[in-house]
Design goal:
single chain; about 210 residues; alpha+beta; Chemotaxis protein chec; 7 helices; about 45% helix; disordered N terminus
């Protein structure tokens, strides 16, 4: 079975292993986010699943749903890309928590807010990749993040153009953060290049057959 064939039919134990990576990564992200906003961050239990590429916009309500996206390429021992998708309301709530009111005045999604969300996406993605590296012994090097506020379908179109030899399915970690009573829903999506998922599962001790 090839990595591509196996990616669509992972066993329960393989999904559990990837979910554990999500748990640790989300925990790291919650700590980092708490330090950024200087407030307690409560974290729900993350949900990890393998999804077809074409279904990603549906996770946030459909291709025409306005979202904020932070996108990074991954180099190192394994290659791929990672995308953080935040529904518009969650993105604006998070930006409001991070940016002082006097700096946030003006445009709805001004330069300061965009910069804050871009930095947040970088930290959350980095926390997940750090957890993945700790559990697998692999080195992952994220690129400088790009940021876009657009419809989910448009962001996915950009990602699909950027992807090279990638798997047909992607790993989605869905996490709820609650900061000062404000719930922030995020989808962290890992786009593994061909062979990357097989390597990760091998290192996690649950190899593809």
């Amino acid at each position: 079975m090839t990595a591509k064939e196996g990616s669509a039919s992972l066993s329960a134990i393989q999904i559990d292993a990837l979910r554990e990576v999500g748990n640790i990564g989300a925990g790291n992200a919650a700590i980092a986010l708490s330090q950024m906003v200087d407030k307690k961050v409560d974290l729900s239990v993350p949900k990890a699943s393998l999804q077809p590429l074409v279904c990603i916009p549906e996770l946030v309500g459909g291709p025409e749903t306005p979202v904020a996206g932070v996108y990074l390429n991954i180099a190192g021992d394994c290659s791929g890309s990672i995308l953080l998708l935040l529904e518009k309301e969650s993105a604006e709530s998070l930006a409001a928590l991070m940016v002082p009111h006097d700096l946030a005045a003006g445009a709805e999604m001004g330069v300061v807010k965009r910069s804050a969300l871009q930095e947040t996406g970088s930290i959350l993605s980095g926390a997940y990749l750090s957890a993945l590296g700790q559990l697998t012994g692999l080195f992952f090097k994220p690129s400088v993040p790009g940021f876009a506020m657009d419809m989910a379908g448009a962001i996915m179109d950009y990602v699909l153009v950027d992807l090279g030899s990638a798997e047909e399915h992607v790993l989605v970690v869905e996490t709820d953060f609650t900061v000062s009573g404000v719930k922030i829903l995020g989808h962290l999506i890992l786009f593994p290049d061909l062979g990357t998922l097989a390597t990760i599962l091998q290192r996690l001790g649950v190899p593809l057959e």
